[in-house]
Every structure is written in structure tokens, then in C-alpha cells.
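Sample A.
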Amino acid sequence: MLGTVESLLGANKIRVRCMDGVVRLARIPGKIKKRIWLMEGDVVIVVPWSFQNEKADIVWKYSGPQVNWLQRKGFLKS
């Protein structure tokens, strides 16, 4: 599910607004924690937890050209 980073909460916790309208508390798993650097406004892919819908894991961060392509193709609203 696509989402936009709203705020950085410290450590590996991030508040993400998902495309279904839900604001989720997301975390960066240890496997990719040191590999990606997130800022507010970045577009990411999140996977909601199966047992708690208000939380999710971040699995991918889109780069600038990828975000432009997603907007042109209509996957992102703005």
C-alpha cells in the first residue's frame, strides 16, 4: 500500500498517511534501517500488520523520478 511520510517520531518510528486514508504508525525493519533515509513528504510502500491495522512496516522508498512517474500514471492523488 502506498503512503506518504507525515512525521518522524524518532528511532525507527514514522507516522505515515496511507492511500486508504488511515494514518498508521510505521517502523523501519532492522534489515533496511541503515539503507534508507526518510524525510517528511517521501512516498513509501507500507505493509499493514495482520493483527493490528493501525501499525505497519515500511518496505520501500520511492525516489524522485519514480514519484513523478506514479503521479503521471494516476497512482498518486497529488
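Sample B.
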Amino acid sequence: MSERVRAAGPQHEHRAPSACPVCGDRLAVTRLGCGTCGTELAGLFAPCDYCALDDRESEMLRVFLASRGNLREVEKHLGVSYPTARARFNDLLRKLGLAGAEEAPSAPNRDQILSEVASGALSPDEAATLLAQL
């Protein structure tokens, strides 16, 4: 983004929603605009699968790519157990539509979740969500 656009536009960017707040279907990009000159383009544009990732998923993908696919490195960087790193990676693959049908969800067990809360690698809210899924 150019300095001129930053100065003229908002000081922070917001992530565009990916799902319709009414029906839950995926939203389509239909308008693009230039913050500098005001030019607008209207049409139906191809969606960006990676743009729909939340901050945690984007971080997982960034760390995975930076570690060249080494889940042990991902585990160390994120401060989680190997099963949790693998589960997050599998969740990311599923969200992107890249998981094979034979791949079963690999969620951490109760003891792993509680251990990660105790070590500070997992927040109590995240743990509660994971425990509710067991």
C-alpha cells in the first residue's frame, strides 16, 4: 500500500467478512476500489481462499511455510504440543478444502489440552472450545 493511500485512508485495516451474516453462505467480491483516485470496478471477482482465514489460521500457515513444512518447528514456534500443531494444521487443510477424505480429524485429548493450558500455550477459552468438541 502506498504512503499516499495510508495517509488518506483509515489508519487500520479490517478483515473482510467471508460469510453472509444472514444465511451463512460465502460472500462474493463484487466491487473493488482505489483509495487514491476513487476508481471503482464492479463485477464478480474470484474469491481468495486465504483471505477467509482468521488471524490464528493465517499465523499457522505463515509459520508452516516459514518452517518449510516442518511440524516440529511449528510446534516450537507456536509453543504447543506436536498433536496440537498437527490438529491445527489439519483444521487449516480442511478449511482450505485441501484435506483428503481419508483424513480423520486429529483433535488433542483432554490431558493434552489441560497440559497446554497449564503451560500457557492455550488460553482457557480455547481449551473450553476444544474440550466441548471431545
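B remarks: The radius of gyration is 19 Å. The chain has two domains: 3-48, 53-133.
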